[in-house]
Amino acid sequence: MTLAKDLPMVIEKSQDEIEQIIALVQSSNLSEETKLFVIGCINLASWIPRALVEHKITVSNLKRLIFGNGNKATKQQDNSLKKEQNNTAPEEPTPSTSNNESHEPKAPKGHGRLPHTAYNNAVEHHITLEQLSAGQLCPFDCGGRLASST
């Protein structure tokens, strides 16, 4: 954590004062590259607090702007690399399928919803009712119509 004495001092400046400072930097004998850097820093330092106060940007969007978007695949790979570095063994590791599978990205979970074809031992029953056919009204009076089973 940063100590309070290490934090930068906040100095309030009006827009006119900021424009005067930028004009002084532009008229100085600094190199063009340094001028662009200083002017960019001044603009950024005055824009961030103003954007937060005026609710033009949220803290989470500011974090994303500064650090970029996180990538789940990258995070998973970083975690697996850290685990491998922590678990270094003096003996030579033997290649196995479990190590190869851990580096492959996992498929997204379906939240427990599997299609009927995913069950290997499931028995599918087809019941034909002679008094019902496709296109008739639902026998439960729900307002729907029966569909073809094929």
UniProtKB/TrEMBL annotation:
This is Uncharacterized protein. It comes from Legionella massiliensis. Residues 68-116 are annotated as: Disordered. It comes from the Bacteria. Residues 86-100 have a biased composition (Polar residues).
